[in-house]
Write a structure and sequence with these properties.
- By secondary structure, the chain is α+β, with helices and mostly antiparallel strands.
- The protein has a domain at 151-276.
- The protein is 46% helix and 27% strand.
- The strands form 3 sheets. Strands 4-5-10-9-6 form a 5-stranded mixed beta sheet.
- Strand 4 and strand 5 form a beta hairpin.
- It is elongated, with a radius of gyration of 57 Å.
Length: 282
């Protein structure tokens, strides 16, 4: 095995430790063995390096192959989704076309029905107008073509029993008597007609054309017909005054006269203008 030496002053060599040595002395066999080990190590390093390059190439190729496979799979899945989306779009367009076609048919049907309804409505209004004019003529009402056909037959005082909550006991009610008025009005509509066919028109004409001339300012809601109520208004000077309102009404088919009549109850007396009074017999 080799050893460390240092050159002496006399020109020879003396053994020393590694820290102080200048040379390392070996036998020829030892030197050759070290050369062989070095070459073997270099060969092992080159082989390892080659193996590493091969492994890197293999991993890189495998990665690329995986990427290609994943890309092909992703593209395949994308194409599937695109095809599914295209089929859904075609189905949706087909459904839209079907709905449009059905809507067009329904729209044409609606237009025909609307036209038929307007013709029936026009015919109904013409028949109502003719019936009103004939009724006005039979009752000697003038002018027969423009008069609404409503007459006040009578108006009288009436005592209305009203149940109210006891102010001293919330669990009980008390009955009081309210002085009100009852008015009977004659309509121009034939007694043979069904009430549900003429009631909306009667209410419309009364509220829009008749009541204002009688001093009636309010009418109870239909679903509260029969509930007693007092209406008040505040004047400009701050004073509160009661005003006339209809709180209850009934319809009666008078077959003796041949016309529908309206019996209504209101909170204050009404004014009956000349046009609402039955014509005097000559």
């Amino acid at each position: 095995m080799g050893y460390f030496v240092r050159k002496s002053i006399t020109g020879g060599f003396r053994k020393t430790d590694r820290e102080d040595a200048e040379y390392f002395v070996q036998t020829i066999d030892e030197h050759e063995e070290d050369i062989r080990k070095i070459r073997q190590a270099e060969a092992d390093r080159e082989r390892a390096s080659s193996d590493l390059e091969d492994e890197i190439s293999r991993i890189r190729l495998e990665f690329l192959n995986n990427q290609i496979a994943e890309s092909e799979y992703a593209e395949k899945e994308f194409r599937k989704k695109m095809e599914k989306s295209r089929q859904q779009e075609e189905k949706l367009h087909s459904e839209i076309d079907r709905i449009k076609s059905a809507a067009s048919v329904q729209n044409e049907r609606y237009k025909r029905l609307e036209a038929d309804y307007q013709r029936v409505l026009s015919l109904k209004k013409n028949l109502e107008r003719i019936a009103r004019e004939r009724s006005n003529a039979d009752r000697s009402i003038t002018p027969k073509k423009t008069h609404h056909g409503f007459l006040v037959l009578s108006t009288s005082q009436y005592q209305e029993k009203v149940q109210e909550q006891d102010p001293d006991n919330e669990w009980s009610v008390i009955t009081s008597v309210k002085p009100v008025w009852k008015t009977v009005m004659q309509t121009p509509y034939d007694a043979s007609l069904l009430l549900n066919e003429i009631e909306p028109e009667i209410r419309h004409i009364l509220c829009e054309e008749v009541f204002s001339g009688m001093g009636v300012r309010y009418v109870q809601a239909s679903d509260r017909n029969g509930e007693y109520k007092q209406w008040e208004e505040t004047a400009e000077d701050g004073s509160v005054c009661e005003i006339c309102g209809v709180y209850k009404w009934f319809y009666k088919s008078n077959f003796r006269i041949g016309l529908w009549e309206l019996e209504m109850y209101h909170t204050m007396p009404i004014f009956v203008p000349e046009e609402l009074r039955p014509p005097r017999k000559q």
